[in-house]
Structure prediction request, 117 residues.
Amino acid sequence: MKTINRLLLITLLLLPNLVFAASESSGVGKITSLNLAANGAILKVTFSQPYVNPGNCGAANAYIRELDDSPVNQRFYSTALAAYIAKKDVKFWIDDCTTNPWWTDTYPRIWGIEIID
Prediction:
């Protein structure tokens, strides 16, 4: 039983690092436009810096956050909108491609945002 508990603890400690290692930073820049789809399912973000594309997505001229009604996605949208309105520098964390094709292609997917002061 001790071995199983140890393995579980080690897994829990390493898991956040594995997720972080699989993502890439956009670098610091400004949001140049936000496009919220009419159905509210996606947020398309254009950025002032060159786009990173760690998942080799079909398109890399914007970042996409696929949204649902969860509080996490509501906070994400609010944070992005506040940064855009205030013209603050931001950094995005990009981890893969969108699960669905938007505008006939997949895009780099945003999983995190950081406002830089």
